[in-house]
């Protein structure tokens, strides 16, 4: 018999030997033991995690001479024939090359006949998602009402591409990707079986390169054995796979920690001189900083860290040099750099630019600190230069402003002009006459205008009552979602007038429905202590939509806009409402 590669030589032969899929094997074993075997299964998952192997073991379990049993003996004629792929009653069909309606019609004719010598006829369809629509439709009736003693197993890497009508007729099992630890342990076990000496670093490189696929990991091990013979070293595996040495990644971490741009650029020069693939280096850096981030959050000994135990102390020391926010920022910068290396020309330029961003990323101040300083006592805020994309950090001001209910303003530090845009749902600040030097504190939420009719001694509400009404309404999310869009509240003669802008007409109409209106009256009665009628009105077009000049004047007088203009420089060039081009 010819040489058998490691992935085939050590293919599992029983459910207990399958790595990392206990949720599948336990369910199948219990189904066999209780005689509840389904007529159709879908095995879905990434390549090399045991889908076809599990299907073959299920076929052996159903047809074993001592079965049906969850533990086939692998010695009877049926088990040996299935393992060798010579059984007449176990049909393995590659749906990628037999995907047409004619092949499925032939299959339907074949399964009509009873098993030749086994207890069950088992049909294994590999890459089942590649069946044509016509072939899938031809298979439906057979899957729904198969002949006696026939089991269909559809193996696929893309279960979402299977027709819903097929998925509804079968039991779906999702095979998961294997963890770094599971693949590393299996590689070490097989190395011992093969009497090989393999360094822990080499095991780690192979397990990471497998990317969750045990078969890929064993194929790489086979390649490494051919390259290294009896002793597989870390350096040899890295050279074989084009993976950079760990000391290169250590140099990158040190360059970032010391904020040395010269050291970072020298690292790129060294990689090119050594003939390294720059994108491979970037992906190794992504992997390394992901480990650092996990080590910072969960500890270096966490199972989530994709590294051997020998590297835990080193990862812990490096992770301690940065904050969680810094490592998250590094991770995002590297992801963007990898995308540039893949899509754009001149990889050296993009890698150098990405590493320079990493070096300077720690100098950035979070935008929240800047806004807090602007709202505070006037203490100087930290400057916020460019982040991962090169755009000024102040570009995120729109998000923070929106969260606090203030107008959204974009101010570019390095550009002489900028744009101010009223955030959707935000109250336009009323015009002020404060001097430019004024630094009045900004309210935490946009004010609601409460107007009382002149001469009304009993119909007006005190500010405490108004706040109590708002608090009570906010406890009823559906009701508050309509009332909060009112631009004015007016009290007159025991009647509350709620004014809505014309663009919120639908909300005003919903509020006038019987149920929300009754609930609103109940809240008002509980807070005010007496019945209060409610009248819903629409603002006039002129009142609800200020002219551009008025809108600009209000933004120019807004304290946070003035503070950001003073902090970052520039001027407002244009003011527009949401949705305007």
By DSSP, the count of extended strands is: 14
Q: What is the count of structural domains?
A: 5
Number of DSSP helical runs? 26
Nearest-integer average pLDDT: 78
**CATH fold-level assignment of the largest domain:** Rossmann fold
Could you state the CATH homologous superfamily of the largest domain? Answer: P-loop containing nucleotide triphosphate hydrolases
Strand order, largest beta sheet: 2-3-4-1-5
Distance between the termini: 74 Å
Largest sheet geometry: 5 strands, parallel
Rg, Cα atoms, Å: 34 Å
Structural class: alpha/beta
Task: Give the C-level CATH assignment of the largest domain.
Answer: Alpha Beta
Binned, the helix content reads 40-55%
Q: Bin the strand percentage.
A: 5-15%
Brief summary of the model shown:
This protein has helices at 6-9, 22-33, 51-63, 77-84, 101-111, 133-144, 164-167, 180-193, 200-210, 214-228, 234-241, 246-257, 261-273, 278-298, 312-319, 324-343, 347-360, 367-375, 397-404, 463-474, 477-483, 505-511, 514-528, 541-544, 548-557, 559-568, and strands at 40-44, 90-94, 121-126, 150-156, 171-174, 197-198, 231-232, 408-409, 417-421, 449-452, 488-492, 495-500, 533-538, 571-576. With 581 residues, the chain is α/β, with parallel strands linked by helices.
Overall description:
By secondary structure, the chain is of the alpha/beta class. Helices cover 49% and strands 11% of the residues. The protein has helices spanning 6-9, 22-33, 51-63, 77-84, 101-111, 133-144, 164-167, 180-193, 200-210, 214-228, 234-241, 246-257, 261-273, 278-298, 312-319, 324-343, 347-360, 367-375, 397-404, 463-474, 477-483, 505-511, 514-528, 541-544, 548-557, 559-568; strands at residues 40-44, 90-94, 121-126, 150-156, 171-174, 197-198, 231-232, 408-409, 417-421, 449-452, 488-492, 495-500, 533-538, 571-576. The strands form four sheets. The chain has a five-stranded parallel β-sheet, covered by helices on one side. A four-stranded mixed β-sheet has the order 10-11-12-13. The longest helix is centred in the middle third of the chain and has 21 residues, at 278-298. It starts with 5 loop residues before the first helix and ends in a 5-residue tail after the last strand. Residues 377-459 have low confidence and may be disordered.
């Amino acid at each position: 018999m010819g040489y058998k590669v490691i992935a085939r030589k050590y293919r599992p032969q029983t459910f207990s030997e399958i790595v990392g899929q206990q949720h599948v094997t336990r369910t199948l074993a219990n189904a066999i033991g209780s005689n509840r075997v389904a007529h159709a299964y879908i095995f879905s998952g990434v390549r090399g995690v045991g889908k076809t192997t599990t299907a073959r073991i299920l076929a052996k379990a159903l047809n074993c001479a001592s079965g049906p049993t969850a533990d086939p003996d692998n010695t009877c004629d049926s088990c040996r024939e299935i393992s060798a792929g010579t059984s007449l009653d176990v049909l393995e069909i590659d749906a990628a090359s037999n995907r047409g309606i004619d092949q499925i019609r032939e299959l339907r004719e074949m399964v009509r006949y009873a098993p030749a010598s086994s207890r069950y006829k088992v049909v294994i369809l590999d890459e089942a998602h590649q069946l044509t629509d016509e072939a899938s439709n031809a298979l439906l009736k057979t899957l729904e009402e198969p002949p006696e003693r026939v089991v269909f197993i559809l193996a696929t890497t893309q279960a979402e591409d299977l027709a819903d009508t097929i998925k509804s007729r079968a039991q779906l099992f999702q095979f998961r990707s294997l963890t770094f630890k599971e693949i590393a342990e299996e590689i070490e076990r097989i190395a011992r079986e093969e009497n090989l000496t393999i360094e822990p670093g080499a095991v780690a490189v192979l397990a990471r390169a497998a990317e969750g696929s045990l078969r890929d990991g064993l194929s790489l091990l086979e390649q490494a054995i051919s390259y290294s013979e009896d002793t597989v070293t870390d350096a040899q595996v890295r050279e074989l796979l084009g993976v950079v040495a760990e000391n290169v990644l250590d140099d990158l971490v040190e360059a970032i920690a010391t904020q040395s741009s010269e050291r970072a650029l020298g690292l790129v020069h060294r990689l090119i001189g050594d003939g390294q693939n720059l994108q491979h280096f970037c992906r190794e850096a992504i992997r390394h900083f992901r480990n650092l981030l996990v080590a910072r959050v969960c500890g270096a000994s966490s199972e989530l860290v994709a590294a051997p135990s020998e590297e835990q102390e080193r990862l812990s020391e490096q992770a301690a040099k940065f904050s969680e926010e810094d490592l998250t920022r590094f991770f995002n910068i590297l992801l963007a750099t990898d995308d540039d290396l893949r899509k754009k020309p001149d990889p050296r330029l993009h890698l150098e630019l990405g590493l320079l961003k990493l070096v300077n990323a720690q100098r950035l101040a979070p935008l929240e600190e800047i806004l807090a300083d602007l709202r505070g006592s006037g203490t100087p805020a930290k400057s916020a230069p460019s982040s991962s994309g090169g755009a000024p950090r102040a570009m995120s001001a729109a998000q923070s402003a929106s969260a606090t209910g203030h107008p959204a303003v974009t101010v570019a530090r390095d550009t002489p002009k900028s744009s101010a845009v009223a955030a959707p749902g935000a109250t336009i600040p009323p015009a002020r006459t404060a001097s430019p030097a004024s630094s009045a504190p900004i309210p935490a939420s946009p004010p609601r205008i409460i107007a009382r009719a002149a001469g009304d001694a009993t119909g007006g509400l005190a500010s405490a009552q108004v706040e109590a009404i708002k608090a009570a309404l906010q406890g009823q999310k559906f009701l508050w979602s309509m009332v909060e869009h009112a631009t004015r509240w007016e009290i007159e003669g025991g009647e509350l007038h709620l004014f809505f802008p014309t663009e919120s007409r639908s909300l005003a109409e919903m509020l006038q429905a019987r149920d929300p209106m009754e609930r609103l009256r109940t809240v008002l009665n509980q807070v005010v202590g007496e019945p209060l009628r409610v009248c819903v009105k629409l603002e006039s077009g002129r009142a609800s939509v200020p002219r551009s000049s008025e809108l600009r004047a209000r933004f120019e007088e807004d304290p946070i806009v003035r503070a950001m203009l003073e902090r970052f420089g520039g001027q407002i060039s244009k003011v527009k409402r949401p949705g305007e081009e």
